[in-house]
Design brief:
The protein is mainly β. It has a single domain, classed as YVTN repeat-like/Quinoprotein amine dehydrogenase (Methylamine Dehydrogenase, Chain H). Helices cover 2% and strands 38% of the residues. It is built from one helix and 34 strands. The strands form eight sheets. It has a five-stranded antiparallel β-sheet, with no helix packed on it. Strands 15-16-17-18-22 form a five-stranded mixed β-sheet, with no helix packed on it. Strand 5 and strand 6 form a beta hairpin.
Length: 452
């Protein structure tokens, strides 16, 4: 006898929770790849009033991603007491703001119950007038926290690093004055965890002030710090656990580098874009790094690299070189600007900010299909990184429309799921739920199960 379940309620969630991925601990999830677990009931269809289990308002502004651990969702935001200039959609010049806001701002961490969406607590970490401005499209809360099951580590590159327990109590903090950033655009590189250490990158425009550092996650004590000859970068570092060793990979305008766990450079190369935003990731013992500032023109690169483990020293390629012993392949004009690429089912997808999608063979770099317009009716802007599960690739536009494509060798748009609100944060996935942050709300989206 079939039991009927009305709507999407708690029974559906309990049915799926046992087999679904339990946590989403950092930006783009485990392995920084943006992959949901296939076959765990993650939703394929939604709208403003379809398959939305709950929708709750979020105060302030921030483009950090949600972090999920167990039954809790964590989010950062910055609330202004004054009038806030609304962010604009699309890529454009003229978003620099030379003068810091004059109103008092509040840097906050929010915690929500996954099941109900009920706010559990708000922790205010700092209040005051900002000491610097950010680009109109950026926010003072664009770095995504990272969680380890007991603690939440919150990094504002603008002002400091905080450790909170899951009840919102601050266990330790490290603060600093803001560094100058490129054109006053602000910061966005998120922290990463490995073992008992927390790693972060702070690349900026102060003379000799850019660095990568490791901290004891229990005490906040700085274990080591290494100076970086880098201007402002915006990419999150990646912990690469390959067949030979564990490395900390960072992209950079001057050099892309890999460090060992004591902060010594293992390998490096030149030849990236003049602005680095996408986050590296790995699969099948290949590491993928890329950067593609839209203002760069060939012969300046917008490259994608696939790297083999075990390199040392300078592994830079010559201008026309595509491969080497430690570079499986390079494509010089294949990288996105803001969204990080997606590797799913051996295919390497690139979502371009102006609304195009391309696909390559992940092992060889050979093009499967060239750039295809996501919306055949016109240009659409994208900042959030794409994600995938259940043989589908999802691309969330700044308009709040998620374009859903069939994963495979053929470009095929299946549907468009619309929320009707501005979205720039990359979503999170856990326990059969998709968590999407817009400029005003947090959504929990689930699959509507009618019969079982």
């Amino acid at each position: 006898m079939k039991k009927r379940v009305l709507g999407t309620g708690l029974g559906c969630w309990l049915l799926l929770a046992g087999s679904a991925q339990e946590h989403w601990p950092q930006f783009r999830g485990e392995g920084s790849r943006g992959i949901g677990t296939d076959g765990t009931g993650l939703p394929a269809v939604w709208s403003q009033d379809e398959n939305v289990m709950w929708k709750v308002p979020v105060s302030g502004l921030g483009w950090s991603s949600p972090v999920i651990w167990g039954d809790r969702i964590f989010l950062t935001t910055v609330v202004s007491e004054g009038q806030v200039e609304e962010p604009k959609k699309g890529l454009y010049f003229g978003g620099n703001r030379e003068t810091p806001p004059q109103d008092v701002h509040h840097w906050q961490v929010l915690c929500f119950d996954l099941t109900s969406g009920k706010p559990l607590w708000t922790r205010n970490l700092r209040s005051g007038k900002p000491d610097s401005a950010v680009h109109l499209k950026n926010t003072f809360a664009s770095e995504t926290p990272v969680a380890d099951g007991e603690r939440l580590y919150v990094y504002f590159g603008y002002m400091g690093l905080y450790c909170l327990d899951f009840d919102g109590e601050v266990l330790w903090k490290k603060t600093w004055p803001p560094y100058k950033t490129r054109y006053g655009w602000g910061t966005s590189s998120s922290p990463v965890l490995h073992g008992d250490r927390l790693y972060l990158v702070n690349d900026n425009m102060e003379d000799g002030a850019s660095y990568i550092a490791a901290y004891d996650k229990f005490t906040g004590q700085e274990i080591w710090r290494k100076q970086r000859d880098e201007p402002s970068n915006f990419s999150t570092p990646f912990i690469w656990k390959n067949e030979r060793r564990t490395e900390i990979v960072t992209t950079g305008v001057n050099k892309t580098r890999s460090y060992d766990l004591s902060g010594q450079v293992l390998w490096e190369f030149v030849g990236m874009s003049t602005i680095c935003i996408p986050t590296p990731f790995a699969e099948d013992d290949l590491l993928y790094v890329c950067a593609g500032y839209v203002g760069d023109r060939l012969p300046v690169n917008k490259p994608v690299y696939a790297l083999r483990p075990g390199a040392s020293g300078d592994i830079s390629l010559e201008k026309d070189q595509r491969q080497s012993p430690f570079v499986a392949w390079r494509e010089v004009n294949a990288a996105p600007y803001n969204p990080s690429p997606l590797l799913y089912q051996k295919r390497f997808y690139v979502l371009w900010d102006f609304g195009f999608l391309s696909c390559r063979d992940a092992m060889t770099g050979q093009e499967i299909y060239e750039k295809q317009r996501v919306n055949p009716r016109g240009r659409v802007a994208f900042t959030a990184s794409p994600w995938a599960y259940d043989d589908q690739v999802f691309c969330l536009s700044e308009d709040g429309d998620t374009y859903v494509f069939r994963a495979g060798d053929r470009f095929e748009l299946l549907r468009v799921n619309s929320l009707g609100e501005m979205c720039m944060a990359s979503p999170a996935m856990a326990r059969g739920s998709l968590i999407i942050r817009s400029d005003r709300h947090l959504y929990r989206i689930v699959t509507q199960v009618r019969n079982f």
